[in-house]
Design goal:
509 residues, 30% strand, five-stranded mixed sheet, Dna Ligase, domain 1, 15 helices, six-stranded antiparallel beta barrel, 4 domains, single chain, alpha+beta, Alpha-Beta Plaits
């Protein structure tokens, strides 16, 4: 049963390089602690080549020059670790969250999806790179052998079953103690006095004398060196949480540099969401302001974009956030950015052959955002009738496209059952002759054609608005037929009971 391991060397540095990819070709070191006692805790290969060593102080590192220093960020490392988990879970549902820089996954039976193990391992490395991290990937017959190979060998490594001891034997003894520094000094000192310097020499020792001198822990280390251990994975809980953030060295005042950083965060979020075969339904932006009052929670500026159609386009999201921030500026310098995305399953829709082409969801959402910026957010949306008798009462709700098949069916049914009508704005004032409570003759000065004897009338229908009002009925409506030329036209006639006036409100087609 094969297992794969994805290991990110120099993880604290890689977390910063993921946030600032322009630094990847430079010497970068990460500091930890409080000034002036900050010390180097992680370096990349370029920094080690420049003479930067772990444990150096900031002053010692700055003396050499040419090294970019960053303070260790828990937020950056959490986002990088979440991206590493997303990459692993995009391949297999059984993933073990081993440590911040290491994940193990069960790849048994995945050859039909991703090809041979060597190709699968290369694909893992490429996908990890797409998420902003440079990783070492190894595949072996058991989890511990895969972890040792990933931590010890650069690039992509595939160890055939039965060849674990031969392949792992080239690694130094330090490879056994990557995450066990407390035990490393004791065992390494003893083994070096015995002349043991790599895993092949440790694996060749006789078991009984080794157990007598180093105990069960020594036997376990020997089994690791031989690649002969076997243990079950401890699968991590699959959480679809996509969050990215960045802490700024200097406060941002202008929206243009903020848009540059938002573009980078959006690309990272979209890459993670796409790796999990999801799209984005909602974006939540949280900005920490410099001069806000923390005790009252006034230093947090929040914006929320609920998309009517789930999308996965970083450029569209950036433009929507820009339009929203231009309409609602933060009002203070920004020191921290946090972006969260709510995932959704891709929307599957198939248009009919004879249906008109609809605009692309991305373009439609941008158009609505631009219109809302001009006329106001409360004046853009889909009209919805209110549950009331009040004439012409409606409200606007956010536009959300529905199911095309259901919409087509409802439209076809409504066309067969409802006659279309035209509403006149403003209504036409009319003089009406009434006999026995019914309109008998209409005279409309504004429209001469809307004049003459009423052939027949249907009504009245009375309405006053909401049923709980106490003022009584305020409108009386009639449908009347008038002779016009060789045909008959139906009109909607309304009488305002409070003012005693008649109006021609519309016509039926």
């Amino acid at each position: 049963m094969p297992y794969a391991c994805i290991f990110v060397p120099d993880f604290p540095v890689e977390a910063w390089l993921r946030a600032e990819p322009e630094l990847r070709g430079q010497a970068v070191a990460v500091l930890e602690g409080k000034a002036p006692l900050q010390r180097i805790v992680a370096t990349n290969e370029n920094a080690r080549g420049a003479g930067i060593r772990l444990g150096m102080t900031r002053l010692q590192a700055e003396t050499g020059g040419g090294v970019v220093l960053r303070v260790r960020s828990a937020q950056q490392e959490a986002a990088a670790h979440a991206a590493l988990l997303d990459c692993a879970q995009s391949f297999s549902p059984r993933v073990e969250d081993t440590s911040d820089d290491t994940v193990l996954l069960d790849v048994a039976g995945l050859e039909a999806l991703f090809g041979p193990l060597s190709r699968m391992a290369r694909t893992m490395a490429q996908r990890t790179a797409q998420l902003g991290l440079v990783a070492q990937v190894a595949v072996a017959a058991n989890p511990d052998a895969a972890a040792l190979a990933a931590r010890g060998f650069s690039g992509v490594t595939v160890i055939s079953e039965g060849k674990e001891a031969e392949e792992l034997g080239r690694l130094p003894l330090e490879a056994l103690f990557t995450n066990r520094q407390a035990e490393a000094e004791q065992f390494l000192e003893t083994l070096e006095r015995w002349g043991i310097r790599n895993l092949r020499e440790l694996a060749a020792l006789p078991e009984a004398p080794l157990s007598g001198r180093l105990g069960q822990e020594g036997l376990h280390l020997q089994q690791l060196a031989r690649g002969a251990t076997m243990r079950p994975l401890v699968p991590a809980e699959e959480l679809l949480v996509f969050e990215e953030g960045i802490e700024l060295e200097y406060p941002l005042v202008l929206l243009e540099p903020l848009a540059f950083l938002l573009a980078r965060l959006l690309e990272q979020v979209c890459a993670r969401v796409g790796a999990r075969a999801r799209v984005i339904q909602e974006l939540r932006l949280e900005l920490e302001l410099e001069n806000g009052r923390r005790e009252r929670g006034q230093n947090i500026f929040q914006r929320r974009l609920r998309l009517p159609v789930p999308l996965l386009d970083a450029k569209v999201f950036l433009k929507l956030l820009q339009l929203d921030l231009q309409a609602h500026p933060p009002g203070a310098p920004i020191v921290k950015i946090h972006l969260a995305a709510e995932p959704a399953r891709p929307r599957a829709a198939q248009s009919g052959l004879f249906q008109p082409a609809l605009p692309e969801p991305e373009k439609l959402e941008l158009t609505l955002a631009r219109i809302a910026r001009v006329v106001g957010e409360d004046k853009v949306g889909s009209p919805e009738l209110c549950d009331t008798h009040r004439p012409e009462s409606f409200q606007l709700r956010r536009f959300v496209p529905g199911d095309s098949e259901a919409e087509t069916k409802s439209v076809s049914q409504s066309r067969s059952l409802v006659t279309a009508s035209r509403i006149f704005r403003p209504p036409w004032i009319a003089a009406v002759t009434v006999q026995d409570g019914k309109p008998m003759h209409i005279d409309c000065p504004r429209r001469k054609e809307v004049s003459g004897k009423v052939l027949w009338a249907s009504g009245p229908w009375r309405s006053s608005g909401d049923w709980w009002e106490q003022e009584g009925w305020s409108h009386e409506q009639w449908d009347v037929a008038l002779q016009q030329g060789d045909g008959i036209v139906l009109y909607r006639l309304v009488r305002d009971l409070l003012r005693g006036k008649w109006f021609v409100e519309g016509a039926y087609d």
